[in-house]
Amino acid sequence: MAVTERDIQKAEEQMDALQRNGFALSARYDSDADRIVIELSTGVQVAFPPRLAEGLADADPGDLAVIEISPSGLGLHWPALDADLYVPAVLQGILGSKGWMAAQLGAAGGRVRSAVKAASARENGRKGGRPPKAAAN
């Protein structure tokens, strides 16, 4: 498949549109606050704890401190961790792949404690607990 001049022009237009919403000028790990801090071209700073991002959660501070910014400013890369984040996604609160984010939400839901959940667990216990899963045929 050949890349045409129109394909290149379209890709450049898409890149310009993404960059208008802000791109990374700098990124650093603030060890005192335990935060990744991204300075955007819009003057906005975005900060988040590394434990919230796929590939960064269990990293050593030294590995978190080395962050490369892609030439477009739309990507961040941690070479020692082989981890990447897409800046437009970070701005939307997306700090990992769909599968990873779904697992984080599921785990958070499983940790929720409420009176309703406790009552339901007690009721299931009185009935003998959770029924076994049926064997798939």
Automatic annotation (TrEMBL):
InterPro entries: DUF2442
UniProt keywords, alphabetically: Coiled coil
Coiled coil: 1-28
Classification via Pfam families: DUF2442 (PF10387)
Superkingdom, taxonomy of origin: Bacteria
Disordered, as annotated region: 117-137
Identification of the protein by name: DUF2442 domain-containing protein
Organism for this UniProt entry: Methylobacterium komagatae
